[in-house]
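Input sequence (184 aa), recorded before submission:
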Amino acid sequence: MQKLIIITGDLAAGKSTLAASLSEQLKIPFITKDSLKEIACDIIGYSSREDNRLLSITATNDMIYFFKQCANVGTDIILEANFRQNELMELESLVDQYDYQVVLIVLTGDIPLLYQRFLDRLVNRHIAHRSMNLEESLDKFAEYINNLRNEDLVFFPHHIDMTNLDEDEVTQNALEIIHNELGD
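Predicted structure, token format:
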């Protein structure tokens, strides 16, 4: 049975870093929503928050398309994004259709720490990620994070609180979860 590893969770929790690390460790390709969104933004651009939301929707739809192509040939894959319930439901349908095993890893953390990480990396982030105005206040950032945390995750979630862990520890925790769930 083929494997789908989904990495999701809080903003600035290290989802893309974890996906890249797991890809290297497990020799499984990975796709990140942010990378696809940046590519689309470089080609199309955007002029409003709504345009930027459409870039996000397009990037997520592209990820689901890529997963379907991998599923057609039975390839393991890692997908990373801050998935919403409807997107996970679409993946669930494909998982059932193609008989994949799924591990859902949710990265969380202390909200003030995540907010500071979000602010620290904002200056170096691609323009595609600067339209939400979450840097305006910790309260607005916390509200966004809490709304994400309240989404139904469809698949059984394995939470990793990255607050007191370094990147290697987060990767090791994720590898343990994957091994326990998938047996590899």
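Checked by second reader. The chain has seven helices and five strands.
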